[in-house]
Amino acid sequence: MRLTVKDTPHPFATAVKRLETREGWGITYEEALTAPAPDGAIDLTYTVTEATRKDAKLQEKVLNQLIAQQAGKAAPRFRLRSAGGLWHITPVQGSPLDTPITLPRMERPLGEVLQALCAEVTKQGGTPLELGSTTGLRLETPITLEATLQEPARTVLARVLNSDPRRAAWTLRAQEPEKKYVLSPHRIFRLAGDTPPPSTPPAEAPKPRPSGG
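The chain above was modelled as a monomer; its predicted structure follows.
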């Protein structure tokens, strides 16, 4: 497989997103406010089959190959982490989602829990974190978040967004002029797989046939 991205404002971020939707891997991407977004073209070649697509070692190898393309360029360098069932591409300079947060137990709609998490990160870290787009997520879905005590925000966020059958990742973009971050969670899906795009409404249940008589 070959993944080529060029002539776009943020080729590295675009490559991460395309890899996720091509393979169905859960990948989060986070930027640093203290450095510009990577702007070098991406040209990645890797080998994958239906049998190996879900292999964690293969995923790690491909993602490290992608990150290596940014090494040595005039751009922030990234590192790869694995936690909460997701791969995390994070800047070596640090991220607001490294911030330890404390939240009470909540039984609220998903959207309200996400807003509360952003507010706590802003309070503890000092740099504004806002909730952006939430592609494919039903913000009105009620969820339960158990109380957290000084846990990294990234760990809490992964737990909030991933509970059977929901699978979601996120993008954290730095907004340099405003000196803030925008968090955009999104549902994970494969464009080439059997999972429908986020905008596809759930199919209606078939109506029962009238009984013969």
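The radius of gyration is 19 Å.
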